[in-house]
Design goal:
This is tRNA pseudouridine synthase. The protein is an alpha+beta fold and 243 residues long. The protein is built from six helices and eight strands.
Length: 243
């Protein structure tokens, strides 16, 4: 979408476009970052940040994406490789006995795990094992890139916090509560966040113990990950990319 919109601005040379983070189908982005090299024809002044935002958003009107801001950067800047960290949030909804109880405005924007309330203290205990630098081989899905990708990552932050729904004042009397899992690292492995959240929810449901998370880390084998424990994409949001 972005590439096509940029091409509508009639650049004098092919657009070179790079995004900081790719997301799976069904995953959302509150804010992503990208850079592009765009040249105008002879005699035309370079786009200002404001002109670029307005022009790109005009051509992006039919699509579920908007440019929030634009600014000039040095030629050495790279949206992906210059990022210091990436922050994701995963939205969990508690209190739903059945899928039909998920508020209509929240569908596809959260995950409502089955069962009763989650054991948050047990999830926090399990999360302590994931913080820091580890080989996260068990917490990545295998892909064509996996054999060439170093599985060692440093998890800078993993915390749980109550969060409002989009119309939270309508949900409280129904016993619905939102919980956000906030995760921060310089980079993540393929589906790492969804696997970590899924395993932590399994701990909260009593299906795994906090020590199981430590054992999964130590085994360093993607095939050892519990079947059907990966969180669905609907609750995951790329919150920000830090530079």
């Amino acid at each position: 979408w972005f590439q096509k919109a940029a091409e509508q601005l009639r650049p004098s040379a092919p657009i070179k476009f790079h995004i900081s983070s790719r997301t799976d189908t069904g995953v959302h982005a509150l804010a992503n970052a990208a850079h592009l090299d765009i040249q105008r024809g002879p005699g035309k002044a370079a786009f200002s940040g404001k002109q670029l935002v307005q022009g790109l958003n005009y051509h992006l009107r039919p699509e579920p994406i908007r440019i929030l801001s634009a600014q000039r950067v040095p030629s050495t800047f790279h949206a992906r490789f210059c990022a210091l960290s990436r922050t994701y949030i995963y939205r969990l909804l508690q209190g739903c006995a059945h899928y039909s109880q998920i508020p209509v405005f929240e569908r596809d924007l959260c995950w409502a795990p089955a069962g009763g309330p989650l054991d948050i203290p047990a999830m926090r205990e399990a999360a302590e094992f994931l913080l820091g630098t580890h080989d996260f081989s068990t917490f990545r899905s295998l892909s064509s890139e996996s054999p060439f990708q170093c599985p060692v990552r440093t998890l800078l932050q993993l915390e749980f916090q109550p969060a409002p729904g989009f119309l939270s004042h309508h949900y409280e009397h129904r016993g619905l509560e939102f919980l956000e899992v906030k995760v921060k690292s310089r980079s993540f492995l393929y589906r790492q966040v969804r696997r970590m959240v899924g395993a932590l929810v399994a701990v909260g449901q009593g299906r795994l113990s906090p020590q199981h998370i430590q054992e999964l880390l130590q085994v360093k084998d993607a095939r050892a990950f519990p079947p059907h424990a990966m969180a669905p994409p609907s609750g995951l949001f790329l919150k920000s990319v830090e530079y």
